[in-house]
Amino acid sequence: MAPGGEEDGGLAAAAPLLAAAGEMRRRRCGEGCPGCRLEEANKASAGVPYLNFFYIWVVCLAAALPIQSLFPYLYFMIRDLKVAKEEQDIGFYAGFVGATYFLGRTISAVPWGMFADKYGRKPCIVISILSVVVFNTLFGLSTTYWMAIVTRGLLGLLCGILGPIKAYASEVCRKEHQALGISLVTSSRAIALVIGPAIGGFLAQPAQKYPNLFSEESIFGRFPYFLPCFVISVLAAGSCVACIWLPETLHFHNDEKVEAIDELEAQAGDSNLEAVKAKESRGESTKNLLKNWQLMSAVILYCVFSLHDTAYLEIFSLWAVSSRKFRGLSLTSQDVGTVLAISGFGVLVYQLAIYPFLAKYLGPIKPFRPAAVLSILLLATYPFMANLHGLELKILINIASLLKNMFAATITIACNILQNTAVTQEQRGVANGISVTLMSMFKAVAPAAAGILFSWAQKHISGLFLPGDQILFLILNMVSIIGLVLTFKPFFSLPNVMSRS
């Protein structure tokens, strides 16, 4: 027999098997699997799925608005609920209101990921948006501190969109568009930084700000923080309509039939890496995901910088509206809303127009460390802004806030890409659930710790080796320094897909 004859004969014998496997796969795609239909549609079209991306962006926006909108008025809401005995204690109580949302999300993130992996991404998204409509509305009607705590906690518990939507964004498109899809998830949070604080800052206490439109006897006068929550709930209800056109990305197959097809393809010499990964991932457990250091190192990074970003937002909002006697900026809720809205709009432009080019030419990882270093240097200048006044203060605080959020967005997008490339599709729901659980634990700690630290700093403005406000931002910077250290070996492991590219 000629050299290679046996191999050629094997290939010839394998050809009918390969054709049979292909036919079975095509038949399987025709049996009503929404994931297969979407996959075939993506194979047929190389273009960007703009419509699907738009729907993702809308529902992410609706879910993110309640998180961002309360920061401009939270200080005043806690003051009006009369739970703080002293002005310096307002930050202490405000921190726990911010923390309860993330505590609820910590408890429910992995169950939501498992739900999304079993029943689909779309049902999870719909339930999450409905929870925003209900519990965000109730939060605006809070008359006691504990009602505010409970409604925020239930909102975090039942809004399980964050993990599944990241998996969804990476599945609804072709591989070359995944970075854009995940960046849109983040950009929706950026636009929430524009709309959310603006809604909260300008619509809170409407009877005081717009007495010609709202009377003290109206529902918006009796519940001064209801109007911004009501507007967000209406927007969330509208986004439920967009969910009608969301395609399901999860594959619903008969497991025995799938394994038979995969085995047939293996006999036919199919070297499709995704099929092999999919087969292996079906037997993969959450325990094995926790042993995936490429995933977990990215998750740890994400958690550390999430803690920093959440603590920063809490501290910045409280510091900006606090009195000059406590080395605050004495800004109004409208001023804070404007600053956060301007920086949010700038980040949106950055993510849509600038970041894709950075990712194309440098990759998602190279800008990571420079962004962290520049963020640390920028934050060190914040305490000295308390010495500024008027137009000079407004210009510099807007520039600083914009740059800070741009650096944070660069880091967040890189972390999300790292997490989703470290696992296969069948694992992404649970993997993102694990990520959201751990991240939410850090975010639950962040507002409470930031509020306690802020209250302590206001009580120790002088008498220590540094003023209290400088110690406050120094401790905040230490979190970023820890995160920066964790980007180096042996703490960090780059996914194989990226290390080969």
TrEMBL record:
Membrane topology: Multi-pass membrane protein
PANTHER family for this protein: MAJOR FACILITATOR SUPERFAMILY ANTIPORTER, MAJOR FACILITATOR SUPERFAMILY DOMAIN-CONTAINING PROTEIN 10
Major facilitator superfamily (MFS) profile domain sequence ranges: 52-495
Source taxon at top rank: Eukaryota
CDD domains cross-referenced by the UniProt entry: MFS_SLC46_TetA_like
Gene3D superfamilies (UniProt xref): MFS general substrate transporter like domains
Pfam families, alphabetized: MFS_1
Keyword Transmembrane: yes
Membrane spanning stretches: 53-78, 90-112, 124-143, 149-169, 181-205, 225-247, 295-319, 339-359, 371-389, 395-418, 430-456, 471-492
Swiss-Prot/TrEMBL keywords: Membrane, Transmembrane, Transmembrane helix, Transport
Subcellular location: Membrane
Protein name as it appears in the record: Major facilitator superfamily (MFS) profile domain-containing protein
Cytoplasm is among the record's keywords: no
Coiled coil: none
GO annotations of cellular component type: membrane
Signal peptide: none
